[in-house]
Amino acid sequence: HAFAAGMEVPEANLLAFRESVCKVLPELNPDIKPGSRVFFADSRIVAGEVNENTFETLQGLAPFGAGHTEPIFLLKNILVKEQKLLSGGKHIKFSLFDERFKFKKYSGLLWHKAADYPEDYVDKKIDILFQFGKETRGFGCKFYLQIIDIKISE
Q: Residue 91 pairs with which residues in a beta bridge?
């Protein structure tokens, strides 16, 4: 398609290539700071679309893997009502709400990266990048939001 690109970089030039890209990226997008994390969402989603129907539809597209990656969604302006550290501070569990959609409540989990997010987000609106995670305990179709990145909403 029109936006696709590809290239080869000899292994001997890989470090120089990486350094050049890291130098040019901030010039192309001033919001990207050296050392910052950069993620890309496959789609923006609104809270009303974060439901079991969407989860089941995505399950029908599995299995995911190389060449067929699981989609990453951007959910903006979601309110954090609770934040709890798990497993000795390795993980964070969030209770998330969106009052625009009949106070929908979601469970969000940030695995293995609690140290990267020391802020208390309770009663703040955040934007999250996430993938649907499958709840393995209990009965029925349950999902949670497997959080990849968080930022305070603007």
A: 86
Average pLDDT on 40-55 reads 88
More confident residue, 95 or 39: 95
- CA-based nearest residue to 121, from 92, 144, 101: 92
Q: Is the pLDDT of residue 34 over 70?
A: no
Q: State how far the alpha carbon of 97 is from the alpha carbons of 34, 94, 132, in Å.
A: 33, 10, 16
> Is the distance from CB of 119 to CB of 82 less than 8 angstroms?
no
Locate 94 and state its tokens: 């969030």
Name the strand (E) or helix (H) holding 129. Answer: strand 125-134
pLDDT of residue 104: 74
Q: Which helix (H) or strand (E) holds 79?
A: strand 73-86
Give the residue carrying structure tokens 């439901």. Answer: 51
